[in-house]
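Methods — Computational structure assignment.
A single polypeptide chain was analysed. Its primary sequence is given first, followed by the predicted tertiary structure written as structure tokens.
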Amino acid sequence: MMAEAAAEYEALSLETRAGETVHLRNILMLPDDGLKAARAILARFGETGSEDLEELVPKIRDLLLLVADDPAALKTEMKDWPLAVFVRTVGEWQEETQVGEAPRSDS
């Protein structure tokens, strides 16, 4: 069952400049405490004032570290990332981990 879920809810593989591979997991594959934390971070994106760039980067960083299978390697990689790389990474992660629509039932 876990293998099927992992195949259905794939992670985004990210190659670091140090040559390590970090997998950014689908939120649905996080344990309960991770899922709750991810929801809290995502809810902060909609808060008033969240459009400020100074506040956007820490939120994205927290989310990526939460879904990373190797947060230490990702933290090192992200040290000098500009906002554009954070936004691009989140976009690719969302696209890769997006769950497809269920097929329609004929009934």
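Note: The beta strands are 12-15, 21-24.
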